[in-house]
């Protein structure tokens, strides 16, 4: 199973559209996960149409219809891997301990908010993944997204992808 992880798209404020490279990854993914800060419901609608399966949460910049249609926390089991999605986990310092307490029954936590790619494993073996942003790199050198492979109930390859050029931003 191939997952595409994205977050912090901030459309249309930070870019006019998702980069074509991301849409290519959407088409190749069995599951697309968006960890919040969509900003405009049009992207949610488009991802629902173009994704085989979409899992998303709202972020601190999402209001109105986005908060009505999306949860703050999403939990799903994918091929035996227990996955949770949330937008914000707080400061980087202490994140692993905090997330171990907050998500004691999960194997993987996907989050966003910082726009900083993150891949770590907690003391309890919870994998923490932040794909960065495909449209608003802030102080990061590149726009990014992440792909994850799940095989036979185990997390496999996790790959951070550099987005060559964000559309309109």
Automatic annotation (TrEMBL):
Keywords: Metal-binding
Domain of life, per lineage: Bacteria
Calcineurin-like phosphoesterase domain boundaries: 1-152
Signal peptide limits: none
Membership in a protein family: Belongs to the metallophosphoesterase superfamily. YfcE family.
Protein name: Phosphoesterase
Alphabetized InterPro entries for the sequence: Calcineurin-like_PHP_lpxH, Metallo-depent_PP-like, Phosphodiesterase_MJ0936/Vps29
Cofactor: a divalent metal cation
Molecular function terms from GO: hydrolase activity; metal ion binding
Keyword set includes Metal-binding: yes
Species annotation: Allosaccharopolyspora coralli
EC number(s) on file: 3.1.4.-
């Amino acid at each position: 199973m191939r997952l595409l992880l994205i977050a912090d798209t901030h459309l249309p404020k930070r870019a006019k559209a998702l980069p074509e490279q991301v849409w290519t990854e959407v088409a190749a993914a069995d599951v697309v996960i968006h960890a919040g800060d969509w900003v405009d419901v049009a992207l949610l609608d488009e991802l629902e149409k173009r994704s085989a399966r979409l899992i998303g949460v709202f972020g601190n910049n999402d209001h109105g219809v986005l908060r009505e249609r999306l949860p703050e926390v999403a939990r799903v089991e994918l091929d035996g891997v227990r996955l949770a999605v949330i937008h914000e986990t707080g400061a980087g310092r202490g994140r692993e301990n905090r997330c171990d307490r907050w998500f004691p029954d999960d194997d993987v936590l996907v989050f966003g908010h910082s726009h900083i790619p993150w891949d770590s494993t907690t003391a309890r073996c919870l994998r923490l993944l932040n794909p960065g942003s495909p449209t608003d790199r802030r102080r990061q050198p590149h726009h990014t997204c992440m792909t994850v492979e799940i095989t036979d109930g185990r997390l496999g390859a996790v790959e951070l992808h550099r987005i060559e050029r964000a559309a309109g931003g």
